[in-house]
């Protein structure tokens, strides 16, 4: 359980510190003051940056992913990547290796969940295994054959997820978000929960 909370570079929060968090907490504020944003940050932390939850948060803002995917144009993926920038402070995808989203306890750097925009040079070792080697922003302009940009999710020294910003990988990832995410928490949005999610939650209770 969190006993304190820090949120950096997430949506409207450049930095938010809550020095004490209890078992039951009440957050109040005016409209557009960041209450939903705070809950979304907690959702991301609880799911350890699960890509399905990141997509769902952006989808909840009524962005039209399906029409962008259907166009199958090179500029579509750039537009989709820009939508993921909605998660960052300033609502813009930062430069490669720029400021990361940080969410977690304020007193433990090792437990902070971090989401950053990274670029990787993809190579293979002698056994044919793919290796990702991080590169700097300026290196993406060099003559590397295989460069992949992605959102990298880490916690402490552990890499949890890569979310490649590539068209084909987006197609498969976006199709998977319709699957119910069986995590040990539930966010009840103001617009209510759809029938299929309610059914899955009820099955889990049973």
Describe this structure in words.
This protein has 206 residues and is an alpha+beta fold. The chain has one domain. 29% of the residues lie in helices and 24% in strands. The protein has 6 helices and 7 strands; from the N terminus they run ββααααβββββαα. It has helices at 35-46, 51-59, 65-71, 74-84, 167-176, 195-205, and strands at residues 5-10, 13-18, 101-104, 113-124, 130-135, 147-155, 158-164. Strands 1, 2, 3, 4, 5, 6 and 7 form a 7-stranded antiparallel beta sheet that branches. A hairpin with a 5-residue loop joins strand 4 (113-124) and strand 5 (130-135). Helix 3 (65-71) packs antiparallel against helix 4. The two termini are 26 Å apart.
Rounded Rg: 18 Å
Proportion of residues in β-strands: 15-25%
What number of structural domains do the residues give? 1
- Please write the string of helix (H) and strand (E) elements: EEHHHHEEEEEHH
Number of strands: 7
> Class by helix and strand content?
alpha+beta
Helix content: 25-40%
Could you tell me the mean pLDDT? 78
Terminal CA distance: 26 Å
Sketch the major β-sheet: 7 strands, antiparallel
Low-confidence runs (pLDDT<50, min 5 residues)?
167-172, 174-180
Topology, element by element:
Elements: E1 5-10, E2 13-18, H1 35-46, H2 51-59, H3 65-71, H4 74-84, E3 101-104, E4 113-124, E5 130-135, E6 147-155, E7 158-164, H5 167-176, H6 195-205
Antiparallel strand pairs: 1-2, 1-3, 3-4, 4-5, 4-6, 6-7
Helix pairs in contact: 3-4
